[in-house]
Design a protein that fits this description.
The chain is α+β, with helices and mostly antiparallel strands. Helix content is 40%, strand content 15%. The chain has two domains: 2-95, no CATH class; 227-456, Cathepsin B, Chain A (Alpha-Beta Complex). It contains 13 helices and 16 strands. The two termini are 69 Å apart.
Length: 458
């Protein structure tokens, strides 16, 4: 610890003590003239010495009989006081500031050359330098090492959580698609039938019969048709022509069969069942069925069947993938999804200005996180609002059968109708078939089949 010769202030080091007296204005004690004891400011001391005492003068007349002492170091200097001050402490008499030419003085920090216009601000600034210096002598390196260690630990924690999340998602997918050695379609089918027997919902003889039917279907690869409902689009067409007073116009897709999830794929088979619906419509259209003939029948090994025929469809048909990757309306809604589907069904203006337009357009595959459905039509209400008509694999055959005998009040349509405010997932994707590829296009698609591209809206 070093003390200032002028003001007695404690300074942290010799280097700081050397800088401190060069700026007398930083001292907290106002010195007096060593020759006449006149109280003058630090920045006026040199000017006072040069004007009031240009030559060595007599001892201080205000203190007769006592040899004057140096106000800086306390040494008795006698009549040679001025020479002593100039020789020993001349560096303390320098002006602390620089005149800017307009009467304003600037004060420069001795540590970082910062220029201040106020001496009090400069004092506080220098004090901060000294505090930082004392702190950094032993703390900077340790703090840097600690910060780096904490950042490394945080990065490792986030990486570990991400890996754990990915493992859990992968295991979930394995369970859903029967790839976790816990059983696929067959094992899930048998387990669910056993639960139905335990709950009294299925008789033992029915269990054994359905088990035998399922084993036969697996062996032959022929769908048993238990999950299929046909004729719904035709029934809807008749209903809209005679009923539904609140609908201004409706567009319906080409004929499509409904398929619901069975005991063997309940909880994960929605994608597989929706693809069955799409193929069922294409197979009823001569424009598509040549390249897809008999594909729908072999459907009892869902995941392999789905992958095979999806690849076949993509390579042989002209398909669009549209990604509605964020909401485009208030409250998380997707009005642009509805507008796109309206343009899809109304593009060819089939039916002209008729209220019911039964188009030749295939249905649209619609998916979001956790579920997928099939768009089979679109209503335009008299108030201009739009409403999608969806086939959901979660609806049973019994529920879909009711639509074949639609009541005049249209209550059964609640299973199908989805308004803009009903679809609020963060993202939606659709797949729409809009033609058959030429031989050249098919060859190019096969070469590039590993890469799928989509259009993003917006």
């Amino acid at each position: 610890m070093v003390l200032c010769d002028v003001c007695g202030r404690a300074l942290p080091s010799e280097a700081a003590a050397g800088r401190h007296p060069r700026r007398p204005s930083l001292c907290r004690r106002q010195p007096r003239c060593p020759l006449c004891a006149a109280a003058v400011g630090c920045d006026e001391l040199r000017r006072h010495m040069e004007t009031a005492h240009p030559e060595p003068g007599p001892p201080d007349s205000r203190r007769p009989g006592a040899p004057p002492e140096c106000p800086f170091c306390g040494e008795a200097a006698g009549q040679e006081l001025e020479e002593h001050v100039r020789a020993r402490h001349g560096h303390l008499l320098g002006a602390p500031g620089t005149d800017t030419g307009n009467g304003e003085q600037l004060y420069e920090c001795p540590m970082c050359s910062l220029t201040c216009t106020n001496i009090q601000i400069l004092e506080e600034h220098v004090d901060l330098h000294l505090e930082e210096h004392n702190f950094s002598e032993g703390g900077d390196i340790r703090d840097l090492e600690l910060a780096q260690q904490l950042q490394t630990e945080e990065d490792e924690r986030q990486r570990s959580e991400e890996e754990k999340r990915e493992r859990e998602e992968f295991k979930k997918l394995q369970r859903q698609y029967g790839l976790d050695n816990s059983g696929g379609f067959k094992q899930q089918f048998l387990k669910n039938m056993e639960k139905e027997v335990d709950r009294g919902r299925m008789q033992p003889f029915e269990y054994h019969k359905r088990k035998a039917d399922m084993m036969e279907s697996l062996a032959s690869g022929i769908d048993d048709g238990r999950t299929k409902t046909s004729g719904v689009i035709e029934a809807l067409c008749k209903y809209y022509q005679s009923e539904s007073k609140d609908v201004r116009r409706v567009w319906l897709s080409a004929g499509v069969d409904h398929f619901h999830s069975s005991l063997g794929d309940r909880g994960w088979g929605c994608g597989y069942r929706n693809f069955q619906m799409l193929l069922s419509s294409l197979l009823q259209n001569s424009f598509y069925n040549d390249c897809l003939r008999a594909s729908l029948t072999r459907s009892m090994i869902p995941i392999k069947w789905w992958l095979y025929h999806w690849n076949l469809l993509w390579k042989s048909q002209r398909c669009q993938i549209i990604d509605f990757h964020k909401p485009t309306g208030p409250m998380g809604t997707h009005p642009r999804l509805f507008e796109w589907i309206l343009r899809y069904y109304s593009a060819d203006n089939e039916g002209g200005d008729a209220k019911v337009m039964c188009t030749s357009k295939p249905p649209i595959y619609l998916q979001h996180q956790g579920h997928s459905r099939t768009v089979v039509g679109l209503e335009e209400k008299k108030n201009k609002s739009l409403c999608l008509l969806l086939f959901d694999p979660g609806c049973s055959s019994q529920q879909m059968q009711k639509l074949l005998e639609q009541k005049s009040d249209g209550t059964g349509l609640r299973l199908l109708r989805k308004f803009v405010g009903s679809l609020k997932e963060k993202q939606y994707q659709i797949v729409a078939v809009d033609g058959v590829l030429s031989l050249e296009e098919k060859a190019a698609r096969c070469r590039a089949s590993q890469v799928l591209t989509s259009e993003r809206i917006p």
